[in-house]
Each structure stands twice: as structure tokens, then as C-alpha cells.
Amino acid sequence: MLNIDEEILLNQLAQGIVSDREGEVWFQAHSLDEKRRVLRGLNVVILQASPREEDAATAISKAQLKTTLTPCVIVKRPNLKVQLAKLATLPEPELTQSFRLLIKLLAVADKRRREEKPLDLENHWWHRDLADPNVVNEIKRVKG
Questions:
Q1: What is the reported pLDDT for 121?
Q2: Of 35, 45, 33, which Cα lies nearest the Cα of 84?
Q3: Could you tell me where the beta strands, DSSP code E, fall in 40-117?
Q4: Residues of the chain with pLDDT under 70
Q5: Would you state the pLDDT for residue 125?
Q6: Which pLDDT belongs to residue 115?
Q7: What contacts 24+ positions apart, CB below 8 Å, involve 87-91?
Q8: How far apart are alpha carbons 109 and 96 in whole angstroms?
Q9: Which of 18, 43, 94, 109 gives a 20 to 30 Å CA spacing to 83?
């Protein structure tokens, strides 16, 4: 389970508000168990964004990962929900690659969803302006 600060950060990473490098440094600072917890939580966030199986190839490209890396091979397989769950169980050296890939998958799915459906700023705080510190503080106050 992710806390609100983590959920905000992951959405800020996906939206390009926080740099990929900052996100990876943050992720790598966690213990192995915490990395796995973050990946599982990120999977939940991704599934809320309604990813499509074809989003995997775009995410791999945006993450600048080789298509032959284990996380990339896994997410290209059918049944994305099942495949996403596997990433948190990979050996530790593959977890940062998984994190990078999942952030880009969230970005791709969320961008498409924003374009196809009207934003629900009332019920979906992650659609609000997460670059605005006042908005972020209000979200933390209400959700934290």
C-alpha cells in the first residue's frame, strides 16, 4: 500500500513534473522489501489508468530500455494485469528497470486517458495540477 506522498510522487514522475533521475534515486534508496512494495502499489495506480497491451511497446521505448530485458519481455506478454504483478518478484538488479518501465507505462496510459475522457478533478486528485505546491498540499491535507 502506498502512502499519499508516494502516490503523488509517482504521478508527478509520470507527468514529467519530477525528473526520471530523481525518481530512480528515490526508488533506489529503498530496501528490497520497500522496492517490491512500491512496485506493487505502482501496479495498482497503473491499472486505474486503464493501460492497453499495446502501451507496453511505447513505454519500453520511452523508458529507453532494451526490449530483451526481462521486465520488457514480461510486460509484452498477454494479460497485462498478470504480467505487471510479476515485476515486483524479479531479482533486485531488475527492479530499477521495472520501476522505470512502470513509470513510463503509467505515463502512456494516463496521457491517453486524459485525452479520451473528461478529467474528474473532484474524485481523481491525480488529474489536478501536481506541479502546484498549493494543490499538492491540499491533496495531502485531505487524503493524508
A1: 59
A2: 45
A3: none
A4: 119-123
A5: 79
A6: 80
A7: 87/39, 87/43, 88/36, 88/39, 88/40, 88/43, 89/36
A8: 20
A9: 18
Query: The cell 479520451 sits on which residue?
Result: 116
CA distance 130 to 125: 9
- Please, what's the b/e burial string for 107-133 (b: 16 or more CB within 10 A of its CB; e: otherwise)? bbbbbbbeeeeeeeeeeebbbbebeee
Half-sphere exposure of 121 (CA within 13 A, CB side): 5
Residue type, 23: G
Containing structural domain, residue 129: 4-143
First to last CA, the chain: 13
14, three cell numbers: 509520470
pLDDT of residue 116: 82
Residue type, 68: T
CA–CA separation, 140 and 4 (whole Å): 7
Q: How many domains does the chain have?
A: 1
pLDDT in tens, 120-142: 656 577 878 899 999 999 989 98
